[in-house]
Amino acid sequence: MNKENVVEKKYLLAFVLVTCCFALWGFANDITNPMVKAFSKIFRMSVTDGALVQLAFYGGYFCMALPAALFVRKYSYKAGLLMGLGLYAIGALMFIPAKATGNYYPFLFAYFVLTCGLSFLETTANPYILSMGDKETATRRLNLAQAFNPIGSLAGMFVAMQFIQAKLNPLSTEERALLKEEQFNAVKTADLAVLSRPYVIIGAVLVVFFVVILLLVKVQPKQEKSRDQKFGPTIKRLWQNKPYRFGVVAQFFYVGVQIMCWTFIIQYGTRVFMNEGMTEQAAEMLSQRYNIVAMAIFCVSRFICTFLLKYIHPSKLLTYLGIAGALLVLGVIFLDGRTGIYCLVAVSACMSLMFPTIYGIALTDTGEDAKLGAAGLIMAILGGSVLPPLQARIIDGNGLGSIPAVNLSFILPLLCFVTIVIYGLFITKTNKQ
Questions:
Q1: Which residue has the higher pLDDT, 230 or 23?
Q2: Structural domains of the chain in order of their starting residue, each with its CATH number
Q3: Comparing C-alpha atoms, which of 326, 321, 319, 320 is closest to residue 414?
Q4: b/e map of 161-195 (b: 16 or more CB within 10 Å)?
């Protein structure tokens, strides 16, 4: 095989269809991030309670990653994709009965089921993409596929802004608190209908895509049979693999920093713009526009970084971007006003490379163990469940001296970038990448 071919020709159709899955879960991730603020308003809750959306969302990733890996190992990548799409569709369509209850917790359960499907998709799609060619081009191949993830994310952000946030009742949080129970319930019912509609539509789209994958994906990579694939020995080999073991930790903190920066830009921007005299809804909408700009930068940066990987070792580029991200977060903390927002938007350029690169580095030379190893890296998405509620608690606090609480909360993303830099330096030192 020509090693310059990033994808083998026989896998080209499968690569295109699986790459579409990257966009589909990007849509789910980033239509959901602004819902922390939306649910907080709709149900008159604190930021901490609203962040339970992220706990349910990324908790599903954690709980289903290992069962998904075992399922794929027993059956096939195609079976894993179909299971993921099916659960994703079911979770999205569960917004219909959740809306009917008018309660918060059924929505959390729907998110959990939905992300059980996303966990199947990510556990399956990432190693599947890695297997579609020579291992020397595996990280580039995964970065190429992952480059379409932010395209889905942009679509999710746009839908969240134009078809949810813009259509919610314009009453502020304080005004909603003054409503009588009957008035509040009427507003809540209307808002939940607005919020649920895009999820139901994507559920229908997923049913169609399920059929497409079922009918068109035919070629599967050969299974490696030379190694002992029993659960215990596989876990032992992975645990003894330091780049993999530390990669899981780095991935935990990367996903945490990504979700925190994209979720709480709404709170950060809302405070800044309301200080400039805007209404709460106008400030939220403008903040979401900045979030979309951040995702556009993320998307463009992903393609640029994929190109740069031809010339710079993945671990070195990971280290450079981690350092840049940490410096920008310092700006988010200490530079108030729009300058702080500009720093927060620019952070996305640094994050673009990180998930697929950590993933590819961690699974290098793991062979068939990659199927189970993928589960550990997807379980590390728990960082997106654990860290945002911690940041939300800081936001609900009083700040520190002259530093507002929302600015201070970005100390957690700073620590995440420091961890990623340490991982990049470790891999560079050990010459694994």
A1: 23
A2: 9-219+229-430 (1.20.1250.20)
A3: 326
A4: beebbeebbebbeeebeeeeeeebeebbeebbebb
Overall pTM surpassing 0.85 (yes/no): no
β partners of residue 403:
400
The pLDDT of residue 148: 86
Length of the chain: 433
Tell me what pLDDT residue 164 has: 92
Residues 6+ apart with CB under 8 A from 180: none
Q: What is the mean pLDDT of residues 257-262?
A: 91
How many Cβ atoms from other residues are within 10 Å of residue 400's Cβ? 13
57-114 pLDDT, tens digit each: 888 888 888 898 889 888 888 999 999 999 999 999 999 999 999 999 999 999 999 9
Question: Could you tell me which residues are beta bridge partners of residue 400?
Answer: 403
Which residue in 382, 290, 377 sits closest to 338, CA to CA?
290
Distance (Å, rounded) from C-alpha 262 to C-alpha 30? 8
DSSP string for residues in 166-191:
GGS----HHHHHTS-HHHHHHHHHHH
Contact 292, 157 (CB under 8 A): yes
Count of Cβ atoms closer than 10 Å to residue 199 Cβ: 26
